[in-house]
Amino acid sequence: MDGLIPLLDRFITDPDAVNSVSSVIPGRIYVVKGRSELFKMTVRDTTNGFKALARKGTLGQEVFISTTKMNLDDVKAALNRAAGFDLEKGGSRREQKAGRKRR
Known about the structure:
Blueprint: H1 4-12, E1 21-45, E2 50-67, H2 72-83, H3 93-102
Helix pairs in contact: 1-2
């Protein structure tokens, strides 16, 4: 999915995540119902870490994040810092472009 891998690269180099993240595993890309013009990501707890669902347009992708010391709020905050905007709300195209250029 366009923009997801660079975002995950910035996430794993975040100072809060660098010593806590064991692995980040992107899942398959699939077609979803509906259309999300902006890149959005939601994160929830799982047994072994966290599952993030990224969406843009009619595509979705799961990302599995295994951590040792981070809670749900820490993971969300680190992902938002890596993106440069609130991923759950999405951002304007200007915010999304600025987040990509800034890093």
